[in-house]
Design goal:
mainly alpha; 144 residues; single chain
Length: 144
């Protein structure tokens, strides 16, 4: 991106963006929405995000991988993780790459079944957490 004619206009947007990023990671879309909520105009937001992207501070692929791992560790299935990343505005290719790096869904489901026991309640829990029906059935059958 080309620098703005008045660099002072960008400073508040950069400060707000870095302040938000100091508390937690954001996707580009999430950061754009955050900046809009606090009154940063679209041009200033895009410039700030562009600079942060160029500096490596904002990286949707890294964000997707970290977020996918965190959700998987919290017991979420692939459908729930994919939905969350899509909602965060992450591109499909980046979502696919993040999902490919995760432990297979069936293994995660088996670990939950081993902890909770093979029961209809556990199967419902897995389904509600976004696990595929085949992964749920296989995990419950393997522990029975």
């Amino acid at each position: 991106m080309e620098p703005r004619s008045n660099p002072g206009e960008l400073k508040p947007a950069l400060e707000l963006a870095t302040s938000a990023l100091a508390r937690r990671d954001f996707s580009e879309q999430g950061l754009r929405e955050r900046l809009a909520r606090v009154g940063v105009g679209p041009d200033e937001a895009e410039e700030a995000i562009g600079r942060l992207r160029h500096a490596g501070v904002v990286d949707d692929l890294r964000f997707a991988g970290d977020r996918a791992r965190a959700l998987a560790e919290r017991g979420k299935g692939d459908a729930a993780i994919r939905f969350d990343l899509e909602r965060q505005g992450v591109a499909a290719e980046q979502i696919d790459e993040a999902m490919a790096a995760l432990e297979p869904e069936r293994k995660r489901a088996e670990r939950i079944v081993a902890h909770r026991g093979a029961s209809p309640a556990t199967a419902r829990l897995l389904a509600n957490r976004g696990f595929d029906v085949d992964a749920v059935e296989a995990a419950v059958a393997s522990s029975a």
